Amino acid sequence: MTKQRIVEILRSGKPDAQVTIQGWVRTKRELKEFAFVEVNDGSCLANLQVVLNPDIPNYQESLQQMNTGASIEVTGILVESPAKGQRIELKAEKAIAYGDADPETYPLQKKRHSFEFLRTIAHLRGRTNTYGAVFRVRNACANAVHQFFQERGFLWVHTPIITASDCEGAGEMFTVTNLDLKKVPLTEKQDIDFSQDFFGKPAFLTVSGQLEAEIMATAFSNVYTFGPTFRAENSNTSRHLAEFWMIEPEMAFCDLVGDMDLAEEFLKHIFKSVLESCPEDMEFFNKRIDKTVFETADTIINNSFERITYTEAVSLLEKTDKKFEYPVEWGLDLQSEHERYLCEELFKKPVIVTDYPAKIKAFYMRLSDDGKTVRAMDVLVPKVGEIIGGSQREERLDILEKRIDEQEMNKEELWWYLDLRRYGTVPHAGFGLGFERVVQFMTGMGNIRDVIPFPRAPLTVDF
Prior knowledge:
Structural class: alpha+beta
Shape: elongated
Helix content: 25-40%
Number of strands: 16
Number of domains: 2
CATH architecture of the largest domain: 2-Layer Sandwich
Order of helices and strands: HEEEHEEHHEEEEHEEHHHEHHEEEHHEH
CATH topology of the largest domain: BirA Bifunctional Protein, domain 2
Number of helices: 13
CATH class of the largest domain: Alpha Beta
Strand order of the largest sheet: 6-10-11-16-15-14-13-12
């Protein structure tokens, strides 16, 4: 007997077809003549109702084990359902309980649970409606990412997780070491002697695969990364994780305009794709989590993104009567409240801000002709603010070396990066998008720890 996923049965199952399903019990209702068991296998939001009659083998024994959370297999015949809200149900001919779940101790009984509580049982929370929907949307979103780039001829590159370079220059990196922390070797100057460590020098978990993506772009033209990155930022907010996934395309022979065009196309594509592949889950989020989920998707898909310079943005913010918590001044970075005002109240759609002051941006961003700004861009969206950050990269060796010196970085450690400007240098550009940020934005979930299966944050490393 062919086993079928419940999503396939609910979409296209026909009465009188014999099927076998496997899944977990959500609820059980016992009546005098028969029992109803709701089964979910994770393939969709909806459950399949199973009807059990006393004439099936081992009826009482099987029914006794079919508590909420138990894993079961049922073989039977599909029949039209007389119940409201469901087209079809399964009349059981044979039922097997693989694993029981004690109703006295199983924590996911039929009642509402807070997201805070569910984070403490991350090994079970995927069985709830909300997290089932979250992780199906996350999967669809990841598929859309690959589809977008693969259809455009981009090469997926796997950049290293362990690295010696700090791409962002922020210093918020996790150290990777094989030294005995109870007896750390020291140099004559009483510094840690990393020459005795596994790599012979300080090593860290990566904060970005961008610099390595630039290497690959100078050989393959268009590439993208999609992998885990890490920040040792001691931040306990609803928007920060210590371990998260990043998407970073890099394009040779590309300028800032091409970079902005790709970023806009990319966001539109993944929203469209998820709406098409997960309509029931997105309806669930719009109904139960955030009533503006579809409105948000419509704003992304059906609007041309506004494009303004940082200087224009500062001027607009200075003219408004709105009172901000943080000051608005040329030379200071825009805060989330400023970004959200621009896209939520002023333009009422996504906004791309370009040409930021060089002093507040990374060394690798291309210096503009004015000598004061760099060819950077941030994509701002309602409810979030910045969701994508990117730039045209500095391809001129002399200016790049000067920028590295100005930020007091070690040129010797970036010898290979400078070599890219010595041998066949080329204008190129790219951007970065935090994957969890876009899943959170798409679903309306309030906390970023609820859109990754096993969140990593300060004092949080369970599972």
